[in-house]
Structure formats: structure tokens, C-alpha cells
Amino acid sequence: MKTGLANLARVVLFTTLAICYGCDSDTGPEENGKVHFPDNGPFDLLSSYQLFSGNLSDLSPNDHVIPYDLNMPLFSDYAEKKRFVYLPEGTAMTYNEGEIFEFPNQTILIKNFFYDINGMKSLIETRLLIGTDSGWQAFAYQWNEEQTDARLINGGALIQLSSPHQPAEQFYYKIPNNNQCKGCHERNSQLVPIGLKSRNLNIIVENSSENQLINWAKFGFLKGLPDSKSLEEPFPDMSDFQSPLNMRARAYLDVNCGHCHHPNGPANNSGLFLHFEQEENSNLGICKTPVSVGPGTGGHSLVIKPGQADESILTFRMISVKPEIRMPELGRALVHEEGLELITEWINSLPENNCN
Amino acid sequence: MKTFNINQKETGHSGRVPIHRILLVIILLSIFAQLALLSSCEDDPTNVVTDEDPDQIDPTMTTEEIQEKLISVEDGTILTFKAGTYNLTSTLSIDGKDNLKIKGEGEDKTILNFSGQIEGAEGMKVSNVTNFLIANLTIKETKGDGIKVDHSKGVSFINLSVIWETPLSSENGGYGIYPVLCEEVMIDNCYTKGASDSGIYVGQSTNAVIKNSTAEYNVAGIEIENTIGAEAYDNITTNNAAGLLVMDLQNLSQLGETILIHDNIIKDNNGDNFAPKGNLVALVPAGTGILVLSSRKVEIFDNEIHGNNVAGLGIISFAMIAGMTGNPITDPNYNPFYSDIYVHDNSFAKTDVINTTAQSDIGLFLLQMFQGTPIPDIITDGIFAPGSGANGGFCLNNNENAGFINLDAPNGFTNPSFDPTPHLCEMEPLGSISVDVPTL
Predict the structure, then answer these.
(1) N or C: which end of chain A has fewer CB within 10 A?
(2) In this model, does residue B17 exceed pLDDT 50?
(3) Residues 284 through 313 of chain A touching chain B, CB cutoff 8 Å
(4) A96 touches chain B (CB under 8 A)
């Protein structure tokens, strides 16, 4: 009797699992080696997408998952990042001068955030930007301690970490909630990718003598790439001191601030626009009085006081780590010392002007 | 979509139960689970029925759990924050919802306390919503702004309090209730205290009503900035540095017009101006009743403007501020000249309280100019728009007990005039503003 019941229990349990397995929104794999697109909402586990093969934490891309690099990355509390774009078989991105590339439906942009903790790579989160019929959707997956998989968290998380940068202070790393993704990834109130544009992707990738964009065009991942002479000037590497100061500073501001501080971005209420294409006038902050910044002024009356970084609101907000003062508002709990140094040098290099 | 279950009740068993009974229970539970799975597989395999109302939030939930709920909640939901104190560590954000209503169980019962906030520049951040309502709760001690709503249409704040209890400090958040770049806004029966800029602030919006509300111990009680179509009435602003500001600033998305300010009590606003330097409001004299800065089409009537002892009512151009502070006018689309300002049927009075300790530079300038003698109630800088005619762009009519001074800023304040005669005139009243917003 007991054995009979136990067997029945096993059968029932097995069927339960089988039914659950078929549920699209929970688990994944149908076919090994092939990326699994989430047709019915995001998977709970990162592994279900099959974006990577082998050990998940090795981040070895599967077919049609293309690694990419940027000239000027966004600062994220000194986290290291590995980026990929998944393009469905037979599709390609489209070049878009001065703007974000266009992407085929069912593209997945993948950004992995990790730190080197005691000589060990420790993945914190993986963010996905998924192109669906009804627009882009953003999701964050938090890695488990064993580093075997990452789980979807919609509500965000605060994780106490020790800064890899000296001095090694404790700070709260924020995994954004879904809405906060849109806090930066937004144009005209729609969620959009922000990083993939020509100036930032035009780079000779490490361990390769080839330019990333040309490579992509060659393999059919990118359509409409103009010949290399008519490409926009690439952003420099931040630490490339051969590159003109103005170029480095404007590229830094574009990448770190210009997604929000853009005429069609979520911070457009400020009238401060820091995207690369913004011409050098008061909308760029030069001699501009602040709007609605409360304690964010630091006692200064101009966003950028030419020649005087230490009297400029822009640098004050880069120095602060207080949530109500720091800029960017999201994704920065530590001071980016190198960025601060660059912007300080740039403001000090602007011809002094009492702005009257 | 995934749904999130809260407060699942734990079922515990005690005592000894024969093993076959346990197995039987397992089988029955499994069958039940399968049926549940079969019926819900399409949308959610993890759905478990609880007896909790899914549209209720309670104080035992973590910030992240509440945030998940604010993301997964369906359009059209009435979400109740049950009574209690919520200790929150991050901004609560809402994006893209239609017809969402957030309700507490009373301003004294549902308290969102952000004193332990680690992350986020606001207490609540609401973006890209249509027909949104928040009511019957208190937001306190946010690190930055209390509640900011941007890029939205049809927004109601009703019976909402935003408070910083800590001593008036420039460390307090800038704005209490803060709709910006919105259309159709209602602020009704709200309360704000302690904001380091404005308690209630409506910016770069179109069609807004502020009524039955109280703002006290802020730097500015109520501020209406670069807004087209606003009406503020039946409000009380008291013990702020400045009671009510109507301003148009440069470098913003639009210039404002058509602002009605009436039937308000604007009283004893002589509080400290503790706004951080660099904010425009830091320049406003501690002791201001109403300030109109570079605005057009404003009607101010039937207000009680008493005991605001530096500037009862100022009609000022940003050009004067630019001249006094060195802050330049850099926006080619900006118009620093006020015009069509109609001030009528208000009552003015003064007391002898003068704030000399936490006074703005412009306030100090005025106090010095008058050397201890009372400053007239209505002050203009005399910077009139070219072609504005004899009245300079504003009319004063039937204001009880109102003294007047034109400071003569264009001539370096050398020849001020106490004669209101050029401005004693009438203008066409503005029509009332109606808004299309959700109701309780």
C-alpha cells in the first residue's frame, strides 16, 4: 500500500514537473545551442534564454550573440561590463548617423556587470533590453552567490559592496528596478537603447586588428555603414591624452549625462542638454542658471562657470554621493574620480568669463 | 505577466501523522497543484491563491516588494497602501500606467517614511502616466523631492501631505509636491512643510489648479513656474520665507501665461530663507507675500496678504535679478518683461516682524534701502516692457491698505517713486481654469 502510494506520488510529481516545463514564462530550453526568445514575457532565469553556452558565468556567447565594446563606457560604480547583442538569424542592425542604430525585431541587448573580488570575477547582475512587437522592454537579473545563474528581479535591489577603487569604501550598488531602466533609456517617453551609436562603436577591438563596425558590416550584422572616410569621428578612450580635451570631455558628458539631459530625454525639464551634438551655449550649461535643483546647487549659481570648475554646479554634483545631489541620479553611488578630473580640467580650460 | 504574492500564510502541522496519510496529502496536493497549473499555465505557473487582496500594500512589505507591485499593477487599479508606517530605502517609481489610483487610509494613518532612504532623488517618481491619482497619505523625510510627476496627463494630488519635520534646513528636499511637464493637474487639500525650495511647485505644465491646500515653513509655499493656465485659490500659505511665487525663467520648454491667484490667505511669511544659494528662490526676500517674476497675464484678486513684512507683493523682472546677481540672460527665446498683470481687490497689512537673520541678498538690499521704515506693500522694479504704455504692464485697482513703490531699477534705484497713479487702471479679468483629472 505504502509503496503504491509512493509510486503514484512520483508519477504525479513527474507530470507536474512536465507541465511546468512547458510553461513558457518560467523555464526554457527547447533546443540546445539556440537562443530562446521570450515570447510571453521575460524568463525567470537568465539561463533560460540560452544566450551563452557552457558555464553561464563564462559568458561564452551562443550563435548570433555578438560581443561588442565601446570607446567611452558609462561609469557604473567601477563595475566591469561585458556587452553582447543578439540578432535573430538572418537579420542585421541598421546604421543611423548621429543616432542609435536601428534594430530588428527580437533583438536582445545584454550587459553583464561584474567586479573582480579577491581575484575572482563576481557577476552582480545582467541587464537585458528586449525588442518586442510592442517596443523595448528592460529587465535586470541578479546573479546567485554560486554564480551559476541569475534571477529576474523587477523591483530592484541594493547590494552592499566594497569599492574596487581606492579608497575601498563600502557602498550600496543598485540593481535598477524596471522603471529605473527607463529613467535613462528613454526618448519621447518610450524605452529605447542608448549606447549603440557609431561614435561609440567605432573602435578597434582588443585582440583584433579590425574595426568593430567594419567587422559587423562584413559579417552581415550591420547594414548601411558608410565608407570609413564619411564615418563620424569616434569618441576617444577617456584615458587617451593624445585626444583633444574638449573631445574627451564632450564624449564623457554624452555617454554619462546626455541620454537624460537631451531635448527628448527624461531630464529635459532642466533645459540642460549634454549630448554630444549640443552646441556650445547656455543649454550646454555654460553660464546657465540652474532650474529646480534644490540642494543640488552646492551654493553655486551657474551650471558651468567657464574657467572655474570649483564654482560650477556640474562638478559639485559629480563630487557628491548624496542621492538628492549626485549626478547621474541612477547607477552611481561612488565618485568617478577620473571622470571628475576630466570635467574639472575641461571647465578650467574654458576661457574665463564672468557670464554677464 | 508575473504576479507577486504577499503574506502567504504558513500552514503548520504538529503531532504525529501516519506516513500513508502524509503521502495521501501529498498526492491530493499534487493533483490540486496540477489543476491549478493547467488552468493558469498560460499566464503564470507560480500563481498561488492567497486570501490577501492583491491590490493592497501593507507596511510589512519591503521597498523592493512594493516596487515590484508598482511595476506589475494593471492599468485601472486602485492600489491601497494600508495604514501604518512604511520605512522605505529607495525611490518608489511608477511609469506608464493609465488610470492608476494610489490611496492611503488617511494622511495621519498611512505614512511613507523615507528617513532611511539610501537611493533615489525623490520619494516617489511618477512618469508618463495618464489619469493618475494619489490621495490620503503622508510622504515624509525624503532625501530629495517628495513626489515628482513628470511627462504626464491628468494628475490629481488629493489629501496628500509632504513633510520634512527636521529643523528647517537646506539639507531638506527641494520640492514637496512637484508636477512638471504635465497637462491637467489638480492639487486639492494638500499640506506641505519644510521644503528647501517650494512646498507645492507646478512647473512647465499646462492647466493646473491648486486649491484648499496649506503650505508652511517652506522657503516658498506655492510656486507656479513657466505654466500655461493655472489657478490657485482657497489656499493658506504661512510662515514660509515667501508665500506664493509666479515666475517665468529662461532656458525652459515654455513660457507661462494665464495665471489666476485669488481668495488665498497669504499671511506672516517671514520665515528663514534657507534655500541653497544658486537657486532662484534663494534670492527671494524672507518676508514676501506674492512675487510675480517676468510673467504675463496674471490676475491676483481677493487675497488676504497680511504680515509679509518685506515685500507684500513684488512685480519684478528677471532683468533686475540679472543686474543685481550677475546671473546672465542667455536664452534668446526668453522674455524677461512682465505684462498684463492685474492686481485688484486684495487686502494688505503689515506687522513689525522683520527677518534679518536668514535674509536673501535682495531682501537685505531692500531693508537697507528703507533703513527701518516700513517698506510699501506693492513693489515694482520699474523695468517695464518696451511699448507697454503708461501703466508699465500692470494695473492696481481697489487694493485695501496698499502702499506702493517703484524702485526705479533702470536708473540704478536713484529716483524711486511712491506714486501708484500710472498703474491705477483696470484690465479684462481672466477666465477660470478647468482641469480634466481623476477624482477620488
Answers:
(1) N
(2) no
(3) 287-302, 313
(4) no
What does the domain layout of chain A look like in residue ranges? 24-218, 236-349
* Amino acid (one-letter) located at A78: Y
A6 touches chain B (CB under 8 A): yes
pLDDT in tens, A271-287: 999 999 999 888 999 99
Q: What is the mean pLDDT of residues B111-117?
A: 97
Nearest-angstrom CA–CA distance, A310 and A316: 7
Task: Give the pLDDT band (50/70/90) at residue B170.
Answer: confident
User: By three-state DSSP, how is residue A356 classified?
Assistant: coil
Top residue of A171, A282, A284, A324 to mutate, by most chain B CBs within 10 Å, is A324
Instruction: Show the cell assigned to B258.
Output: 494665464
> Assign residue A151 a region: left if phi > 0, alpha if psi is -120 to 50, beta otherwise?
beta
CA B211/CA B434 separation, integer angstroms? 12
Q: Say yes or no for a CB contact (<8 Å) between A189 and B144.
A: no
The three cell numbers locating residue A111: 550587459
On whether the CB atoms of residues A208 and A215 are closer than 8 A, the answer is: yes
DSSP letters for B262-324: ES-EEE-------PPTTSGGGGS-TTEEEEEES-EEEEEES-EEES--SEEEEEE-HHHHHHH
Q: What are phi and psi of B91, to 5 degrees?
A: -55, 140
Q: Which of residues 58-87 of B touch A (CB under 8 A)?
A: 63-72
Provide the CA B116 distance to its chain's centre, in angstroms: 22
Distance CA A198, CA A278 (A): 17
Category of A116 on φ-ψ map: left (φ > 0), alpha (ψ -120 to 50) or beta: beta
Kindly state the average pLDDT of the residues A311-340. 95
To the nearest whole Å, the CA of A10 is away from the closest chain B CA by 9
Q: Which residues 207-226 in chain A show a CB within 8 A of chain B?
A: none
Question: How many Cα atoms sit within 13 Å of B56 on the Cβ side?
Answer: 14
* Shortest CA gap A346–chain B (Å): 21
Separation CA B94–CA B125 (nearest Å): 6
Cβ-based contacts of A155 with chain B (< 8 Å): 63-69, 71
CA distances from B112 to A153, A248, B57 (A): 23, 43, 12
Say whether B121 and A329 touch across the interface (CB within 8 A): yes
Q: Nearest Cα to B224, choosing from B321, B298, B305?
A: B298
Give residue B343's pLDDT.
98
- Mark yes or no for CB contact A355/B37 under 8 Å: no
Q: Do A19 and B24 touch (CB under 8 A)?
A: no
Contact indicator for B160, B190 with CB cutoff of 8 Å: yes
Report d(CA B139, CA B123) in Å as an integer.
7
Cβ contact B69:B79 at 8 Å? yes
**CB distance B209 to B435 below 8 Å:** yes
Per CB-CB distance under 8 Å, the chain A contacts of B197 are 292, 294
A266 touches chain B (CB under 8 A): yes
Comparing CB atoms, the residue among A26, A287, A298 nearest residue B45 is: A26
pLDDT tens profile B401-427: 999 999 999 999 999 999 999 999 999
| Cα distance between residue A65 and residue A73, in whole Å | 20
A228-268 tens-digit pLDDT:
888 999 999 999 999 999 999 999 999 999 999 999 998 98
Q: Which among A156, A177, A269 is the nearest to B150, CB-wise?
A: A269
**A189 Cβ neighbours under 8 A, 6+ residues apart:** B96, B127, B128, B151
CA angle A332, A333, A337 (to 5 degrees): 80
CB contact under 8 A, A26 and B150: no
* Distance of residue B63 Cα from the nearest chain A Cα, in angstroms: 8
